[in-house]
C-alpha cells in the first residue's frame, strides 16, 4: 500500500507560492502588450518612424523584485540552518 504523505506547513507554503508564481507568469504577458498609437515624424498623420516601442517596465520590475525576495528568503534559510547546527553541537 502507498503511504499517505502528510502536508506540512512548509510544503503547503511552497505549493501555494508555486501556484501563485504560475498564475502571475500566465497573466503577466497580457499586461505588458504594447499600446497602439505612437507618434510619427509629422505628429501622427503621415510617415512612420519605424520605431517599435515595447513597454518592459512592469514585467521586468516584477521579476527583479521576485528574484531579490527569493534571494533574501534563501539567505534566511541558510542562516537558520547554520544556527540550528551550532546549537546541536
Outline of the structure:
The chain is mainly α and 89 residues long. The chain has helices at 9-31, 57-88.
Which key terms come to mind for this protein?
mainly alpha; elongated
Question: Could you tell me the mean pLDDT?
Answer: 76
Q: What's the end-to-end separation, in Å?
A: 39 Å
Give the class from helix and strand content and strand pairing. mainly alpha
Rg on CA atoms, Å: 23 Å
Description:
The chain is mostly helical and about 90 residues long. Helix content is about 60%, strand content about 0%. The relative contact order is 0.08.
Topology:
Layout: H1 9-31, H2 57-88
Amino acid at each position: 500500500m502507498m503511504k499517505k504523505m502528510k502536508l506540512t506547513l512548509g510544503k503547503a507554503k511552497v505549493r501555494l507560492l508555486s501556484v501563485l508564481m504560475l498564475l502571475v507568469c500566465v497573466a503577466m504577458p497580457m499586461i505588458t502588450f504594447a499600446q497602439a498609437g505612437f507618434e510619427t515624424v509629422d505628429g501622427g498623420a503621415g510617415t512612420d518612424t519605424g520605431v517599435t516601442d515595447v513597454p518592459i517596465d512592469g514585467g521586468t520590475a516584477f521579476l527583479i523584485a521576485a528574484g531579490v525576495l527569493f534571494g533574501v528568503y534563501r539567505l534566511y534559510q541558510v542562516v537558520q540552518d547554520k544556527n540550528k547546527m551550532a546549537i546541536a553541537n
